[in-house]
Amino acid sequence: MEHRGPKRIEKGTPRIPPNLADYEALRRSFGWDDARRELAGLLGGGLNMGYEAVDRHADGPLAAKLAIRWLDKAGAVRDFTFADLKAQTGRFANVLKNLGVEKGDRVFVLMGRVPELYFAVLGALRHGAVVSPLFSAFGPEPVKARLTIGAGKVLVTTATLYRRKVEPVRAELPTLQHVLVLPDEGGTFPEGTLNLLELLAGAPEEFQTAATQPEDPALLHFTSGTTGKPKGALHVHDAVTEHRITGRWALDLHDDDVFWCTADPGWVTGMSYGILSPLANGVTSIVDEADFDARRWYRILAEQKVSVWYTAPTAIRMMMKAGADLAKQQTFPALRFIASVGEPLNPEAVFWGLDAFGLPIHDNWWQTETGGIMIANFAALDIKPGSMGRPIPGVEVMLAKRDEAGNVSPVTKPGEEGEIAIRTGWPSMFRTYLHEEERYRKCFAGDWYFSGDLATCDAEGYFWFMGRVDDVIKSAGHLIGPFEVESALMEHPAVAEAGVIGKPEPVAGEIVKAFVALKHGYEDTPALHRDLLGFARKRLGPAVAPREIDIVPTLPRTRSGKIMRRLLKARELGLPEGDTSTLESGA
Ligand code: ATP
Ligand code: MG
User: 473 CA to middle of ligand 2, Å?
Assistant: First the structure.
């Protein structure tokens, strides 16, 4: 696609040498056992994520190093060293032990980003339990559905969240034996729950981390629900092999970095890269309790001297909406690497990074199912704005077509579209969709996992996202990826965000229809509407440009910030909306 701005951003001279300096050489030589050898491991061949994240450092030279700096909503700061984390997670693990929780039992957490969430997640992993995080904004039904699928035995939450989300459905959760609650300040304490703070205070710090094996289950993550009912993807302790090394390669984490991953631990990015990867790498992380606020985020980046920042297109779009002037009121001398995941990153956003921070944004691609970063733009390679980059070493990606009967034919020509397929065998691959074995099996053909996303690959091996298989538009014999159309619309000065769908039409099969939300200061007028149609036509040509554009106040989004094209389509066509458990309220 043609976009304004350079087609290639040369890697330049990074301030410090990238960890992954010679991509081609490492791709040739790397095997996953090389990454496993860099872990501490447990005696007898065991492996435990919690141990890699906490004990390993607390028992060595990094004990007094800052592990997590927590910023509360009001602006107070609490610091936790690796030694502190070991003590607190040890207490939590002992609480579980005293309650009779066993290895493999499921411990759910439903909390905002408070320190106890981190103690609970890491403590439960050290104990050998399986952790399942729930996003704190879920209502009672999504909470119930996930606790039921996962047969949750323990739930860790707060008094407020318990009253609003769990109490109404508690009687319908027969597997749930213990609810550990963080009391509200000055509030009453809910009946039928245990006081988390009292339990922690009464439990010893000393805890011998469980001797789990690499293939033992560790995490249960529910997908974002963008395309339908969320699936419960189960991951094993060996996933930390991947979390750790991809933090070094794709996020370029170095020992002295201050890292900020803005994703909530209720989603896979917030767990894999907001908790496990930086800790396993012995790197300091920032955790912010508050929700998105452009001014606050710029302040955190500046004041906390964040050097590596991992965020998402939805946040970047909101910052763009707030204007680059806000960014320019401060300087960010410490910031040296920015990465993004979760949705396609429009070229416009990459250029905005250059404008606001003097740094390009490195897009990377992965899914709940892959457990870790699979395709990335690396510090030592040029960026092609709009491309997701290249596969990480150790992972083989092919593009292929699959027919109804399951026949697979690889795509060989550069620029031809195919479904992203990954050769099985990477450590953080999901091991099942809980209670949906059939659906799990359907993701595989031979040695390959099929992702459900379509892309193209150019002659230099860079991958370009087109859209989800379900979202791709077939119009008059053309296959059109919504991303391409959305990116073109985003280049119009009035457009803050865009969502594109295929709308059935008798002649073309489908026509391209766009929904756009405007930036502050722009109004929905017939002139602007005409201008948008003309602008898109000029950029994309008549075959690909949207035939219809609706200007809307906002686009429906998942709570993790992804545009829900299936809802745009259902609403447009008057069809049932399907599962909306992850829909952001008010959207
Ligand atoms: P569900 O599977 O329930 O519909 P979901 O696929 O949105 O939800 P996640 O696993 O959180 O749940 O998201 C992974 C998906 O997000 C990918 O399959 C892809 O469609 C999209 N995605 C992630 N990163 C990128 C990226 N860099 N570029 C384009 N798309 C991306
Ligand atoms: Mg998915």
Answer: 18
